[in-house]
Design a protein that fits this description.
There is one protein chain. Helices cover 31% and strands 29% of the residues. By secondary structure, the chain is an alpha+beta fold. It has one domain (3-192): Aminopeptidase, CATH 3.40.630.30. The strands form two sheets. It has a six-stranded antiparallel beta sheet, with helices on both faces. Strand 1 and strand 2 (13-15) form a beta hairpin. The longest helix is centred in the N-terminal third of the chain and has 24 residues, at 52-75. The termini are close together.
């Protein structure tokens, strides 16, 4: 795995076997928007399928700006506080934006409540790309930030997402309910993390 630092000319990336995690950019708008409207994605992430104008506003005013703040915090010692990092999953073979992998604070969980979350296009499921992305994000966080513990949740019926979490070494903690939906709740601690090289 290799990291390239964020500059004006190049985006911050985390390289994995078949995919690259790359910070969001405005050029992702159309592909990103189309993915959020796939029924297979909004079934599990209903708040993400917003109009394109809303997605553009979020990209410009929140997501890209906060990524810059996150990466600055990493270069200044790794204390990321409650900042979020949002990365696109880019297929190396084609350069296509096929999903996303993010980390941020999950308010519904008790502290420390930093989670990782992800979604991938219906056309690229079952190929190991989401597991590579999650492992890449986990490795990056544990090696470059002050994060000691990560959380992950998946709707009980989302078998594929639960498998990704388990493959990444997360320990099942309990079943929980958030907004009338039942989830499986997992934790992964830095000291016991044995994430395979993504």
């Amino acid at each position: 795995m290799s990291n390239s630092q964020n500059t004006k000319k190049t985006s911050f990336t985390i390289e994995c076997k078949d995919i690259i995690l790359r910070e969001y950019s405005l050029k992702d708008l159309d592909e990103f928007h189309a993915l959020t409207w796939q029924p297979e994605i909004y079934e599990f992430l209903p708040g993400w399928n917003v109009p394109k104008e809303q997605r553009l506003d979020w990209l410009i005013n929140y997501e890209i700006k906060e990524n810059e703040q996150f990466l600055t915090a990493v270069t200044e010692g790794g204390d990321i506080g409650e900042l979020r990092l949002r990365m696109g999953i880019i297929l190396k073979e084609s350069g296509e934006f096929i999903g996303w992998c993010c980390t941020g604070i999950k308010d519904e969980l008790s502290p420390p409540n930093r989670e990782i979350m992800y979604a991938i296009s219906k056309d690229y499921r079952g190929k190991g790309y989401t597991t590579q992305a999650a492992q890449g994000m986990i490795k990056y966080l544990f090696e470059n930030t002050n994060v000691d513990e990560l959380n992950a949740i998946a709707i009980i019926g989302n078998v594929a997402s639960n498998k990704v979490i388990q493959k990444c070494g997360f320990e099942f903690i309990d079943n929980i309910e958030i907004e009338n939906e039942k989830y499986r709740y997992y934790k992964l601690r830095r000291e016991i993390c044995q994430v395979r090289d993504a």
